Amino acid sequence: MSGKSFLQKSGPLLLVAPLFLFICLFFIWPLGSVLTQSVSDNAVARLLPETAKVASSWDGQSAPAEGLQAAFVTDLRAATDEQAVGDMVRRLNSAQSGFRTLMSKTLKAVQDKPEGPIDLVALDRKWSQPQYWKAITDALSPTTDRYLLAAVDLMRNDAGEIISQPPKQTINVAIFGRTFWISATVTIFCVLLGYPYALLITVATGWKKQALLAAVLLPLWTSLLVRTAAWFILLQEQGLINSALMDLNIIADPLALIFNRTGVIIAMTHVSLPMMVLPIYSVLLTIPKNLMPAAASLGAHPLRAFVRVLLPLSFGGIAAGSLLVFMSAIGYYITPALIGGAGDQMISSFIAFHAQNSGNWGMASALGIVLLVVTIILYAVYERLATQRERSA
Amino acid sequence: MQVRPIGQPYPATEKGNGVAEFRIRFDGVSKYYGQQCVVDKLRLDIEKGEFVSLLGPSGSGKTTLLMMLAGFETATEGQILVDGYRVNDVPSHKRDMGVVFQNYALFPHMSVGANVAFPLQMRGISKAEIAGRVKTALDMVQLGALSERKPSQLSGGQQQRVALARALVFEPRVVLMDEPLGALDKNLREQMQLDIRALHQRLGLTIVFVTHDQGEALTMSDRIAVFNKGKIEQIGTPRQVYDEPATRFVAEFIGETNLIAGTVEVVEATSVTIRMNGGNIVRVAGTDGLAAGQAVSVSLRPERLSLTQVSGTDASLPGNTISATVTDCVYQGDHLRVQLTGAGDASYIVRLDRRSAEPQRGAQVTAFFSPEDCKVIAS
Ligand SMILES: Nc1ncnc2c1ncn2[C@@H]1O[C@H](COP(=O)(O)OP(=O)(O)OP(=O)(O)O)[C@@H](O)[C@H]1O
Ligand SMILES: [Mg+2]
């Protein structure tokens, strides 16, 4: 074959290459690294290479042998990166409380005596207890499921069985629940508001149609932050809404609209509405105009005609819109942060907290993974339903 | 069958007494879209069991009239009566009229059977009875075997028949059809015309049928209402509108015709003499209130003209004669179409039997026709 035919064959592939590279670089690679982060655990193994070598010879029950202790001391002497040491101490302390004081004592001893063996047990009685060594050897494994388990409020006990975390520490499941609840509420409000609106756009003509469409599209072209900030102003105690209602003597005292769930749902519904209206509108456009008159001529009351004809035919649009709204809603961060109270923060805020404030990338990644899995499951269910309907249609 | 009346008694003083002779009456009905008058003070009576076609050019207001009857549009003025009751304000779902739309309007998400069952379900009929009636209706249009299919899995003609079955299954008092055969090919269309016609006769249906295909209207209807610009130009049996067009528009719209302008010379007891532009004098049967000196048109159907090679007027030929020159002759399978030019550059179309000898181009011929075969239209 000539070079030309190779070019002809690979030409189309070359055209998609930039997109392919882009996706790999900015989507698949970060996703992969998040996945890795959520299960990797090398804060300890990185600093204790010698300990790792001899760790397998220890039976895990008795007080550790001299060799292990010596290797540990060697590793501590070699560890100069203070931040890495800090990470390790934090990691060990989270597995076994008491490690922080133990380690600072030990590290100081190691600094004071740069040469020769150190009797750790003499330094602190704790070093004779196997559970401290167990914490170290456990943490040496490069992979862990502790973040993923913790993301759904589970943990492993000393015997390695999966149990739920003590009630005081369970927070993630509640936050996931809150996230899904807020998202579901927003989705339902979006359907209730978006469907009639899409219907209105479909039947409107001329400039009215343009105006209605613009009212949906305009917010889409405005930054999310700006829209949220607008709601921040509108929902204030002395904001436009409250003052208007009070001026009209509809209410005597201002309604509590901001820093609570109500405000979050109002603002999120508005922000998500275009994602509901547009898919429904596009489906409504494809429904022949004469089906509703036909139903009426066959004796169907308008409401029944709607339920039997228009609603089933536009179901695809509602499902697609709901999926879009729900999936984007569970990732909301700015809107609950600005407009919600402490009890309205969604999972994204906690992911951000773990990533930025506490530097716990493993936890942040694990929460992200849980979110991703839920989204994928939802999407799979949607696909399943959609293909079923298609087959029966 | 005793039909439950819909709407209010009309006139308001008259009780709904069931003596209405007409199933449907349009009483001075107009429809305006803004300033545009689409239907203009229209009067039309349709009897029970009658098949009436609304025939007219595009935009003449046929669909609009049908939609007002079905209740999808409101009349700007006038009364629409069904069985003597005014139905202007009755919503469409209570009018009890089966409508067949141009593109069928089948519900795509329902099976054929469910489509046909729909009007019965809306009437709260029991499941068992629905099953029986759906089956009967589908058998009637020979689709009994396809009731599980979705409309998208049917051919155009089959969909059309489902739409028909759906519009008939609830035994509506009127069936309205808006160009239901427009999307079908010629053979299927002719088959469906006969099918609908047969159903009409068998079930004694009252049908209002919109079309702009004159052949269709002639084949199917008891009466044809010829529409033009929101008005009915003429209403009558197919024979009446074809043979005795009342206006120039009807003559031209239905079938092909030669329209020759002229002036009335003499009015006699049973006929009139007309001097046509170009000098020919013709006698036409019927007087129709014509007066001497009046400007008129004579409508001459091409197939009513005969030709002879002999030129000049010949006393032996019956009726009227016109001398002319052959300018064109085309063989069209079932007939010969000859184009003539006569005195004063008047041109005529003649339709000859396909077995006739083809006249030569440029030949001098005489066209002749009897006084009964033409029609004077006041113009
Ligand atoms: N909703 C409307 N708004 C404004 N004008 C309309 C509307 N519907 C119909 N018209 C006008 O009314 C006139 C008659 O329309 P109609 O549909 O009744 O014609 P038709 O006789 O059915 O023609 P066709 O044979 O093409 O179907 C047309 O000039 C059309 O432009
Ligand atoms: Mg029409």
TrEMBL record, chain A:
It comes from Rhizobium wenxiniae. The chain crosses the membrane at residues 12-32, 180-200, 212-234, 264-285, 305-326, 361-382. The keyword Transmembrane applies. One of its GO terms (biological process) is transmembrane transport. It is found in: Cell membrane. This is Putative spermidine/putrescine transport system permease protein. Belongs to the binding-protein-dependent transport system permease family. CysTW subfamily. Residues 176-382 form the ABC transmembrane type-1 domain. PANTHER family: ABC TRANSPORTER PERMEASE PROTEIN (PTHR42929:SF5), INNER MEMBRANE ABC TRANSPORTER PERMEASE PROTEIN YDCU-RELATED-RELATED (PTHR42929). InterPro entries: MetI-like (IPR000515), MetI-like_sf (IPR035906). Keywords: Cell membrane, Membrane, Transmembrane, Transmembrane helix, Transport. It comes from the Bacteria. GO terms for cellular component: plasma membrane. The keyword Manganese does not apply. CDD domains: TM_PBP2. It is a multi-pass membrane protein.
